[in-house]
Amino acid sequence: MVMDKLSNRSVSTLSDAEKLTLANIYLQDRRYSEALSFYDELCDRNPNRFDYQFGRGASAGFLLSGTPSFRSLRYVVQLRTSFEAAVRLQPNAIDARRALLNIYLGLPRLLGGSKAKAMQQLKAIQLINPLEGALAGVIYAIKTNDQSVFDQQAQMAFHDSKHQFEVNDSRYELAMISGHYFDDNKRAKKLLNDFLANANPGDQYPPVFARYRLAKFNNDNPLLLNPIIEEVAEIDTFLETYDPLSSYIRNIKPN
User: Fold this and answer.
1) Does residue 136 belong to any structural domain of this protein?
2) 26, 60, 90: which is the final residue of a domain?
3) pTM across the whole model
4) Are residues 159 and 232 in contact, defined by beta-carbon separation less than 8 angstroms?
5) Residue 22, domain member (yes or no)
6) Residue 1: inside a domain, yes or no?
7) Tens digits of per-residue pLDDT, 79-120?
8) What mean pLDDT comes out for the span 134-153?
9) Which long-range contacts does 25-34 make (Cβ < 8 Å, 24+ apart)?
10) b/e string for 35-55 if b means 16 or more Cβ within 10 A?
11) Number of domains the chain is built from
């Protein structure tokens, strides 16, 4: 209802607050091009707002995942520069630093990729929150293919009982570590339910992934799995691409 009300008005009559509301709704509705258009305008008007920069980076990232490489340069630049700006504006924002860690590890050097810069982000996250730092360390180990570091960081995250999550995606990741690496299905299911309870449009992992994993942890009950498979065709293929943590654990852990 809010989207219909605002989208039917002339853009020139919308306040910045209304444009931000509309951008957030478009992001939630997976209308990433429209969301990016509004975040772009908001960033041009005021580049020193964290939520503007974070939203632009998130929209560009989602667009980049579905864009052929020859059309993606614009989104790459927006993705990196927006999250760099977000981190400058809020240095303790772990979600922005996590995004930047993945960006630096995933991009070629020509487009701004750098293991040294990724390590800087990792160290900063570890100082802010050791639990989030351990999970970021897990991701760093996967991207650099270091099984020893992976085990060390996974152990730290699994046994951390002192610190709280600050990023919802971390709940999903610790659930995969708990269930697939440490065979603690009970804890994995609790974390997945917590992830679903805190889901938001900016999460890296969509809720359907968590629902699918929950069904799998419930002994492959077809009554739970079938509706999810109907909802997302070839979900296993999507999981291979967008859940590299589980794939990595499966590859390194003996049957």
Assistant:
1) no
2) 90
3) 0.86
4) no
5) yes
6) yes
7) 999 999 999 999 999 999 999 999 999 888 888 899 999 999
8) 96
9) 27/55, 27/58, 27/59, 27/62, 27/201, 27/202, 28/201, 29/3, 30/62, 32/59, 32/62, 32/63, 33/63
10) bbbbbbbbbeeeeebeebbbb
11) 2
Average pLDDT over residues 39-46: 94
Tell me whether residue 200 is in a domain.
yes
Structural element, H or E, at residue 117 = helix 115-128
- C-beta contacts of 226-234 below 8 A and 24+ residues apart: 232/208
Cβ-count burial of 237 within 10 angstroms (0-12 exposed, 13-18 middle, 19+ buried)?
exposed
Kindly report the CATH number assigned to the domain that includes residue 59.
1.25.40
Q: Round to whole Å and give the CA distance between 80 and 107.
A: 9
Per-residue b/e over 66-92, b at no fewer than 16 CB within 10 Å? ebeeeebeebbebbbbbbbbbbebbee
Question: Which helix H or strand E contains 231, and what residues bound it?
Answer: helix 222-231
Res 116: pLDDT: 95
Residue-number span of the structural domain to which 28 is assigned: 1-90
Distance in angstroms (rounded) separating the CA atoms of residues 163 and 157: 10
Residues in the chain: 255
Q: In whole angstroms, what is the distance from residue 137 CA to residue 154 CA?
A: 8
pLDDT the model gives residue 68: 55
Closest CA to 157 of 250, 239, 252, 245: 245
